Amino acid sequence: MADRNQLDGVEGDIRFHHVTPELWVMEARRCAHRWVVFHETYSFCLVEHVADGVLIDWRYNHRLYVADPGHAMLMQPGELHANVQRTPPGDFVVIQVAEGLLKKVAGELGWRFPEVNIKHPHAGTDHPALLGALRRFRAGLCSDLFRPHRGRCTCGRSLPDHLENLTYLVGVFIEHCVERAKEIVAPGRGAAAIRKAIRYLRQHYREPYDLNRVAAAAGCTPHYLDHLFASELGIPPRTYQNRILVAKTCDALVAAPHKPLQLIAHEVGWPGRPRDQDVDRANLVIRHFRKTLGTTPHAFRAGVERLLRSAPEPGA
């Protein structure tokens, strides 16, 4: 890992997202430094921006590599990496995963070997699936860390989302960037598990989301189910359940044009906290409406009313 003792002489700003004791992210902005790091974790570095588009030369496992924005750097525990010279100011994130956590997730995804070794020569630096998984993880991080008056990580509030993104990242990593890489999803088993999970979510969408319960109904581990959904459907099971709730809310808004949104949210089955449940549910509906449909429940309802008013009368 890159600890604070290795950050002396850094130009720019470096801060840490602490997700769990085994998962954290170093985020750098306008950072220039000559890195020499011995890794205690699996580290996934995504270079987002470098001043003037300068290439970064770095050594890892006795080989020389080149990275520029849009490339990833992969390191595993027990290895040393070093930049050939001081890097120009740039932005990047380093997702750091403890060895035990990565091996646990990989095992639940179907990896059957004791070690998870990066391919050599370094095959994963520009793999599009890996870059997509890293950008997805990056997009899920909190935005509070660099705020001048707060500067505190709030990633712990959305821990399930980060763990889902980690599962997707590890799945892509062991399929495309690891020695003995293989397809970890058996097509027949995967399709059956997805069907069972979808059936369960459609029947139990009103219940609070619980990945362990959905995975048990699908007959697989939670990490494996997360990977299946991400690989085959492009979304995690949690998002699938939320989309069911959005669809049910649309039906309710059409059926009851004047019913308050708080009441509809309660009747449809949106979750709410013990305090201010109705307000909390309504805000939750609005947020997921925007995310799923790109509009709000109020605008959706107004659009339906306009369509009904403009529709020709029967027999006209």
Description:
- With 316 residues, the protein is of the alpha+beta class.
- The protein folds into 3 domains: 4-142, Sandwich (Jelly Rolls); 187-234; 244-309, no CATH class.
- It has 10 helices and 9 strands.
- The strands form 2 sheets. A 5-stranded antiparallel beta sheet has the order 1-2-9-4-7. A 4-stranded antiparallel beta sheet has the order 3-8-5-6, with no helix packed on it.
- Strand 1 and strand 2 form a beta hairpin.
- The model is unreliable at 1-5 (pLDDT under 50).
Main attributes of the structure:
disordered N terminus, 316 residues, four-stranded antiparallel beta sheet, five-stranded antiparallel beta sheet, alpha+beta, Jelly Rolls, globular, 43% helix, 3 domains, 19% strand
Topology, element by element:
Blueprint (H helix, E strand, L loop, with lengths): L10 E10 L2 E10 L3 E3 L2 E10 L5 E5 L2 E5 L4 E4 L4 E4 L6 E9 H11 L18 H12 L19 H18 L10 H17 L7 H8 L3 H11 L4 H19 L5 H8 L8 H17 L3 H14 L6
Antiparallel strand pairs: 1-2, 2-9, 3-8, 4-7, 4-9, 5-6, 5-8
Helix pairs in contact: 1-3, 2-3, 3-6, 4-5, 4-7, 5-6, 7-8, 7-9, 7-10, 8-9
From the coordinates shown, what is the CATH architecture of the largest domain?
Sandwich
Strands of the widest sheet, in order across it, are 1-2-9-4-7
Number of strands: 9
Q: Report the order of strands and helices.
A: EEEEEEEEEHHHHHHHHHH
Main sheet properties: 5 strands, antiparallel
Which CATH top level class of the largest domain fits? Mainly Beta
The pLDDT mean sits at 84
- When the domains are counted, the total is 3
Number of helices: 10
Give the % helix: 40-55%
- How far apart the termini lie comes to 73 Å
Spatial extent as radius of gyration: 23 Å
- Which structural class matches the secondary elements? alpha+beta
Shape: globular
